[in-house]
């Protein structure tokens, strides 16, 4: 009988990784950057970035911090979250020990136990400068030139 495509296991591929000394072996480990970005989930929906920073004090040195308020389209799960990238890996363990399970209380007195874990996507967003639109306001200028001539 033919096997179903859904039930068959994909063929395993052997990957050859070049080590620094030029050997090709499977035992050689790839160079990976250290995981330094964490996410704090299940924060109170009414929490603001300033309030979070106040509650996280003293905060070790960070490269990046981004706060996302609640999303009303996810109705029963209205939680805020924050992403933090630390400069030192040792600080992550201390931060996790301190804030994983930490109970945040919102302005109505409801309790929200937070979850601290590594962020699934370790890259950080780049700050991009918004360029001024060169065409902005040109219609009004054209109309003004038309009426004055």
UniProtKB/TrEMBL annotation:
<protein>
    <submittedName>
        <fullName>UPF3B regulator of nonsense mediated mRNA decay</fullName>
    </submittedName>
</protein>
<keyword id="KW-0539">Nucleus</keyword>
<dbReference type="GO" id="GO:0005737">
    <property type="term" value="C:cytoplasm"/>
</dbReference>
<keyword id="KW-0963">Cytoplasm</keyword>
<dbReference type="GO" id="GO:0005730">
    <property type="term" value="C:nucleolus"/>
</dbReference>
<keyword id="KW-0694">RNA-binding</keyword>
<dbReference type="InterPro" id="IPR005120">
    <property type="entry name" value="UPF3_dom"/>
</dbReference>
<dbReference type="InterPro" id="IPR012677">
    <property type="entry name" value="Nucleotide-bd_a/b_plait_sf"/>
</dbReference>
<dbReference type="GO" id="GO:0000184">
    <property type="term" value="P:nuclear-transcribed mRNA catabolic process, nonsense-mediated decay"/>
</dbReference>
<dbReference type="InterPro" id="IPR039722">
    <property type="entry name" value="Upf3"/>
</dbReference>
<comment type="similarity">
    <text>Belongs to the RENT3 family.</text>
</comment>
<keyword id="KW-0866">Nonsense-mediated mRNA decay</keyword>
<feature type="domain" description="UPF3">
    <location>
        <begin position="34"/>
        <end position="143"/>
    </location>
</feature>
<dbReference type="Pfam" id="PF03467">
    <property type="entry name" value="Smg4_UPF3"/>
</dbReference>
<dbReference type="InterPro" id="IPR035979">
    <property type="entry name" value="RBD_domain_sf"/>
</dbReference>
<dbReference type="GO" id="GO:0032991">
    <property type="term" value="C:protein-containing complex"/>
</dbReference>
<dbReference type="GO" id="GO:0045727">
    <property type="term" value="P:positive regulation of translation"/>
</dbReference>
<dbReference type="GO" id="GO:0003729">
    <property type="term" value="F:mRNA binding"/>
</dbReference>
């Amino acid at each position: 009988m033919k096997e179903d495509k859904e039930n068959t296991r994909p063929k395993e591929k052997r990957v050859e990784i070049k080590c620094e000394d030029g050997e090709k072996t499977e035992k050689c480990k790839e160079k990976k950057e250290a995981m330094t970005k964490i996410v704090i989930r299940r924060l109170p929906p009414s929490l603001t970035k300033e309030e979070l920073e106040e509650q996280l004090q003293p905060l070790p040195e960070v490269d990046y911090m981004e706060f996302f308020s609640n999303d009303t389209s996810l109705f029963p799960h209205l939680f805020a979250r924050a992403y933090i990238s630390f400069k030192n890996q040792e600080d992550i363990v201390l931060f996790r020990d301190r804030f994983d399970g930490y109970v945040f209380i919102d302005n109505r007195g409801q309790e929200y136990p937070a979850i601290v874990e590594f962020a699934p996507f370790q890259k950080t967003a780049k700050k991009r400068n918004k360029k001024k639109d060169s065409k902005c306001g040109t219609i009004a200028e054209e109309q003004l030139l038309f009426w004055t001539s």
